[in-house]
Amino acid sequence: MRKTCGALLLAALPILMLFPTAAAQEVQWLQYRSSRDAASIVRDMGLQRLELTGEKPTNINLPQFDGEEPLFAKWLTPMVESGYLWVALDRTHKYGSYDRLFIDANGNGQLDDETPTTTYRSDQYRASFGPVTVTFDGEDGPITYHLNLECYTRRDRQRLYVRSAGWYEGAIMLDGQKKHCMLIDYNANGAFNDKSMNFGECDRIRIGEEGNRETCFVGNYVELDGTLHAVKIARDGACVTLAKAQGVKFGTVRLPESVTEFAAGGENGLFTRKPENGLCKLPAGTYRIERWTVERQDQKGAQWKAEGRFFDEKGVFDVTETGEAELSIGEPIVCAVQAGRREPGYHYFGQEMRGQLGERVALTRNGARPQPPKLRIKSEDGKYERTFTFEYG
Fold it and tell me: What is the pLDDT of residue 78?
């Protein structure tokens, strides 16, 4: 049995306490699904990158390894008291990829009582495992969760990539209409309700028609069909509670008038806006810019689009009920060339576009990348002069 949102007879009181600014609501249950192909089915899934070490952990009982060089890592999860579960990799041959995986699936802090999982695909440097089952202790019984893992072992780097193999989905009722809801453990840590200013640590939610790929960040709110809803998600993802948000305080964001679309996210969720005269509204809170878009048509009718993404701390801003958050984004865009030397006699050059806050900018013409720019190299004495063309990919 998976963790519930609370006893049904007592559900009304805690729900009202959790959403003092929301209208009446009800718990809606979703179905858990898992697959080895979860990443391709769900699409919007992140991962954990775990560094592997050959140093054996202390104060833990280890299984009998076949190989002489087992590797170890900690999978981070808030679903256990320690904050992590041990993972060990073993191989049944002297060289090549690792083909056996042990994980503390019952959360007792030991590995000697675990049955190893073998690979379903491997080559010289890579081994794939999954879905691997782990069980957490929930308030109402055990919680089953699944992982897909890939081990890469090269001389210069040994790393374990961990992705969620499970997700929740199902039909819900919203404002009297039937919708399809999907919950995604984006950061692959076993919980489905993570909110964060760091987009890589924030889980995802989809609400709309079945098969819809439009994804929002898990947060305090979700905006659907122009209506703001307060949202609460069970830690293990088994249920979701939605209601029209009431009494929410909004603030103003001022942008350059050339910006045609703007998106920002944080613990309030993800919001996409089409500014009017450079102005838009967001619920009060702290945000990071997710992207901006500038679109215009040239004299020949071609549609150009510049889009800025991947903001660091310079993209963080506060929205308050009083005052105005002014953001310097969009144009001008800087096109930069990087140069370096790999070895004597060999040089490399790179070209990229950056925005005012250091974000990466992608440029398209009629939905496709324009022709890459050219690079002219001329020696100081003029004896060498040649023009090269950058290549994508």
Answer: 97
43-60: pLDDT as tens digits: 989 999 999 999 999 989
| Rounded CA separation 42/208 (Å) | 15
Confidence of residue 392 (pLDDT cuts 50, 70, 90): low
Q: Has residue 258 got a pLDDT over 70?
A: yes
pLDDT number for residue 338: 81
Give the pLDDT of residue 24: 52
pLDDT beyond 50 at 363: yes
What is the C-alpha to C-alpha distance for residues 391 and 373, in angstroms, rounded to an integer?
A: 9
Cβ-based neighbours of 149, under 8 Å, separated by 6 or more = 87, 101, 128, 129, 130, 132, 160, 161, 162, 163
Q: Are 108 and 96 in contact (CB under 8 A)?
A: no
Percent of the chain with pLDDT over 70: 93
Q: 311: which 2 tokens?
A: 């903001």
What are residue 308's DSSP bridge partners?
A: 292, 361
Residue 12 to residues 7, 21, 122, 138, 286, Cα–Cα distance (Å): 10, 15, 51, 21, 30
Question: Residue 97's closest CA among 122, 64, 74?
Answer: 122
- Residue 368 is classified by DSSP as B
N-term to C-term CA, the chain: 47
CA angle 317, 323, 327 (to 5 degrees): 40
Report the alpha-carbon distance of residue 291 to residue 288 in Å, rounded: 9
**CA Rg, the chain, in Å?**
25
Q: Residue 334 burial (CB < 10 Å; 0-12/13-18/19+)? A: exposed
Q: Which amino acid is at 34?
A: S
User: For the chain, how long is the longest CA-to-CA vector?
Assistant: 87
pTM, to two decimals: 0.86
**pLDDT at residue 110 is higher than 90:** yes
Alpha helices in the chain (DSSP H): 12-18, 38-42
Over range 329-355, report the average pLDDT: 85
> Quick check: 243 and 23 in contact, CB under 8 A?
yes
Instruction: Give one DSSP letter per residue of 23-71, joined into a string.
Output: ---EEEE-EEEE-TTHHHHH-----EEEE-BSSPPSSS-----SSS--E
